[in-house]
Specification:
The chain is mostly beta strands and 215 residues long. The protein has one domain: Beta Barrel (Maltoporin, Chain A), CATH 2.40.170.20. The protein is built from no helices and 15 strands. Strands 1-2-5-6-9-10-11-12-15 form a nine-stranded antiparallel beta sheet, with no helix packed on it. The chain has a two-stranded antiparallel ribbon with strand order 3-4. It is extended.
Length: 215
């Protein structure tokens, strides 16, 4: 792989606003991809196995932007956004270049997140920090057949948490993830010859309470 990157790191408003930008161009050769292949046993039963294939050549062009802003004492707003343009230039299948028909797997065109956090010192010592954040990604294909049956459409997740930092060494944390109980797949596979379509799902809504003691 060859990688080319141009970036900047800037601060504004007497350090209250930070912004980072990165532009990159990655060139890939001999791309290794995980695939599933079907087979038939002498007794006529069928099965499949995991394998690897060489996809040839491709490139990824991207833009990443992130910021952190302190609009007031104790408050911090953070955000990030990423754009990817992916393209195969060579993808050989049975001696034919099908690059125009293929897409990079697990490569969302758009992704990003936004979070708001407040940290309040306590008169008795310690602090309370509360945050809420949202993450997003556009549609992805988890494997090389590009089956719409297991493609993951665009989705977003809400998370939130509160941390009570008691006078050292104790802290209590209440965290909630996937608060909207969104159903989404993290990966999957398709063996069309056998009619097998499998998806693996992310965690549902979860709430955890944790106590920590540092020593």
């Amino acid at each position: 792989m060859q990688s080319f990157e141009l970036g900047s790191k800037m601060t504004f408003l007497d350090g209250a606003l930070m912004m980072n930008t990165a532009l990159f161009h990655n060139l890939y050769t001999n791309i290794q991809l995980s695939v599933f292949s079907s087979y038939t046993l002498p007794n006529g039963s069928q099965g499949f196995f995991g394998d690897f294939t060489n996809a040839g050549k491709g490139h990824i062009d991207g833009l990443e932007e992130e910021f952190a802003w302190k609009p007031a004492e104790n408050w911090t707003l953070r955000g990030n956004v990423a754009y990817l343009h992916t393209k195969y230039t060579e993808y050989m299948t049975r001696g034919v270049n099908v690059a125009d028909q293929q897409k990079f797997t697990n490569a969302p065109k758009w992704s990003g997140g936004l979070s708001l956090e407040n940290t309040t010192p306590l008169a008795s010592g310690g602090s309370v920090s509360a945050r809420v954040n949202y993450t997003y990604q556009s549609m992805v294909y988890p494997e090389t057949t590009l089956s719409p049956l297991i493609a993951q459409p665009a989705y977003g997740l809400w998370n939130a948490g509160v941390i009570w930092q008691i006078n050292q060494p104790w802290s209590l944390s209440l965290q909630g993830s996937n608060l909207a109980n969104k159903s989404y797949r993290t990966t999957g596979y398709n063996v069309g010859a056998l009619g097998i379509y499998t998806g693996f799902y992310g965690a549902p809504r979860m709430v955890t309470l944790t106590a920590k003691y540092r020593f």
